[in-house]
Amino acid sequence: MSAAVAPERAAGSGRRARAGTPGISPVLWLVVPGVLFMLLFFVYPLCYGVGLSFQGEGGPFSAYADFFADRFVSDHGSRESILVTLRLALAASLINVGAALPIAYRMRGPIRGKRIITATVLIPMTLGTVFVASAMNNVLGPAGWINKALLAVGLADEPVALTGNFTGVLLSLVISGFPFSFLLMLGYASGVDPSLEQAAAVLGAGPRARFRLIALPLLLPGLTITFCLSFVLAFGVFPSATLVGNDAGPTRVLSKIAYTEYANAQYATASATAVIMAVVQLAVLGLVLALRSRLYRGSTAGGKG
Amino acid sequence: MSPGAAFRELRIRGLGRRFGNGFTALDGLDLDIGGGEFIALLGPSGCGKSTALNLLAGLLAPTRGSIWIDEQRVDTLPPEKRNFGMVFQNYALFPHLTVAENVAFGLRMRKVGKAERAERVRKALELVRLTEQAGKHPGQLSGGQQQRVAIARAIVVRPRLVLMDEPLSNLDAKLRLDMRTEIRLLHQELSLTTVYVTHDQAEALSLADRLVVMRAGVVQQIGRPSEVYERPANAFVAAFVGYRNALPGRLIGADVEIEGLGRIRHGDGDLPAEGEAVAMIRPDDLVIGGPEAGRPISLTVRVCEYQGRSFAVEGRAPDGTVLHAASLEPLAPGDHVSAHIRPERIRVFPRADQPNRADPAPAESMARS
C-alpha cells in the first residue's frame, strides 16, 4: 500500500507534501509585521529596562537593595509602596468584579433599556483620569457638594475626607475601571446558554440555587480573567494617586516611585522599581490563574446548538 | 389514569401568549390530558407548539388562560415548584457537572438523601444504558448519549409531567429512529404523562396516544394518530400528514368535479356544503402500475425518485396540473403513464380551507423575558 503511494508523492509537486505538514503555509508571512513590532517595541525595551535595573551605582543589585532599604531620591518608603499599590489594586479590582458580576448577570438576557444602561455605564470609560479626578474633587472634596450637604444636614461636624487619601484613589479606580469589568462580564454572562438555567429551574432550582450552582461555576473562569485585567489596569495607574490621593504617603504607588526616580535621572532605580512592579503583578496573576486552572473551563453551552 | 401517573387529569383552558410586539404565538389552547397519556404537539415552525410547552413548563408566562392539575392551579407557579421534567432540544446538560451529577441535580434540589440519591441515579442511568459514562462530562459524550442523559435527568425526579421539546431533531436519521423507540419504551414502562413537541409527523404519529395539530397559534385537530392520519380535520392538517396533492374543484352531490380531471365520486363521509372545494390525495393513493382499480389519470413523468420499495413520481396531468404519485416500477422523465386514484381515499374540504403556502411563519420566540 505505502509502496504504491510513495512514487506518486515523489512525482507530485511539493504542494502535496506541504499540505501534510502542519504549520507551514504562506499565510504565516502575515504574522511577520506583528512579530517585528513586538520585538522592536516590547521585547527590546523590556530587556533594556531589566538590564538597566542591574546597573546601579553600587553593583548589579544595588538598585534593588536601595529600593528595599528605602534609600531612594525622595525617600518616603519605597518598600512600603508595594503594599500600598497591592492594597489599592486588589481592593479596586475586587470591587469592580464584585459589582460587575451581579449587574452583568442581571442583564444577560434581553431586557428593556439595555442599551441606555450599557451606555450610562460606559461613559466613565470615555472620560480621562484627570477629568474624573477633578470632578471627584468638586463633588467629594472637603468643599464639594456632598460634604456641604452632610454639614448642612448635620450628619457630619467636619468635612469627611473622601479625597486626598486611599478612599479617593480607590473611588477613582472604581469609576474608571468598572466599565471594563462590566463589559467583560456582560460578554461572559451572555455567553452562558440560557437554557441551562431554564433546565435547572424545571428541575426544581430556585433563583439562588440557579445562580450558585449553574451560573456562578460557569462564570468563574471569566470572572478570574476579568479580575486579572482589572488588577493590571489598576496596578499601574498613578495620575489618580496624585490627583485625588496623597502620593507623599498613604497612596504612594509604585508607578509614582518609578516616575520620581526617572524624573531625577536615577534610571537604574527607576527600572528596578518597574521590574518589581512586574514581579508583584505576575505573582498575583500567577496565583489567580493557578486557582483558575482548578475550575471547570469548558463550554458554557448545554449541548448541540 | 394509568398506574404510574401522578394525577387524574391535566386541564389547559384558553391558554394564550401574546408577545410585546403584538404577535400572538398561542391563541387559546384548550386541552385535557389524562394521567399517563402521551400527547404530541405537532405543527410547522411558528405554530405555537414550543410556546405551549414553555407555558406548561413555566418558562414563559401566559397572557391568558389557566392550567390545572386535578384541583391545583399550576400556571401561577414558578417552574421550580411544578415538579415537571423537561428535555430540551439542545439537551441543556450542565457542562461543568458529570453525567451522574447532572442526573442527580433534580434530586439534590428535592433534598433527597445521599444514599437514595445515588441509588436512583444509578437506576436512571441503567435505564438509559449509561452506567459506564456516569463519571464523564457531557462534552465527552456523543449526541445520542447526551440525549439519554437529558432524558434520565428529567425522569429520575419522577415528575408529574414530562415535557419534550423536539428532543430528536439534533440526531442523525438512524439514531433518531432508535431513540424514538426508546422513548416509547420508557413511556410504556414508566407511564409518565408526556407532552412532546415536534414538527415531524412520523415522530408524532408513532409516539403519541393523541396528537394536537397546530397552526399559527390555533389548534387544528386533536385526535388519535389514526384519526389524524386518515381523517384530517381540514386541508392544512391533511397537507401536513402527507396529502401532497391538493386539487381545486367543485362539490356536486357525492361527486367532486376536479378541474382538468373530471368528476370523481369520493369516499369522504363528512361532506362539506356543495360548492368550491379542494380534493386532497396522498401520493400512495395515486398509484402507477398497480391494480387497475378506480379512475385512471394520464400523467407525463417529470421526476422519478427511488424510495426502496417503490418510486415517488412527480408528473403532469394533461391540463398541466402537477401531481405526486407512487409507482412500483422505475420510470423515466417524459414517460406517459396512467395513474389510478382510489376514490374512497380522497378527502374533500371546503375551498377556504385550502392550505396557503405563503402563510407567514414568524420565528417562535423561546426567549424568557
From TrEMBL, chain A:
It holds the Pfam family BPD_transp_1. It is a multi-pass membrane protein. This is ABC transporter permease. Residues 82-288 form the ABC transmembrane type-1 domain. It is found in: Cell membrane. The keyword Kinase does not apply. The chain crosses the membrane at residues 23-44, 82-104, 116-136, 169-192, 213-238, 267-291. The keyword Transport applies. SUPFAM superfamilies: MetI-like (SSF161098). GO terms for cellular component: plasma membrane. Keywords: Cell membrane, Membrane, Transmembrane, Transmembrane helix, Transport. Its main location: membrane. PROSITE patterns: ABC_TM1. GO terms for biological process: transmembrane transport. InterPro entries: MetI-like, MetI-like_sf. Belongs to the binding-protein-dependent transport system permease family. CysTW subfamily.
UniProtKB/TrEMBL annotation, chain B:
One of its GO terms (molecular function) is ATP hydrolysis activity. The keyword Transport applies. Transmembrane segments: none annotated. Keywords: ATP-binding, Nucleotide-binding, Transport. It holds the Pfam family ABC_tran. Residues 10-241 form the ABC transporter domain. InterPro entries: AAA+_ATPase, ABC_SmlMolc_Importer, ABC_transporter-like_ATP-bd, ABC_transporter-like_CS, Mo/tungstate-bd_C_term_dom, P-loop_NTPase, Transp-assoc_OB_typ2. Residues 347-369 are annotated as: Disordered. GO terms for cellular component: ATP-binding cassette (ABC) transporter complex. This is ABC transporter ATP-binding protein.
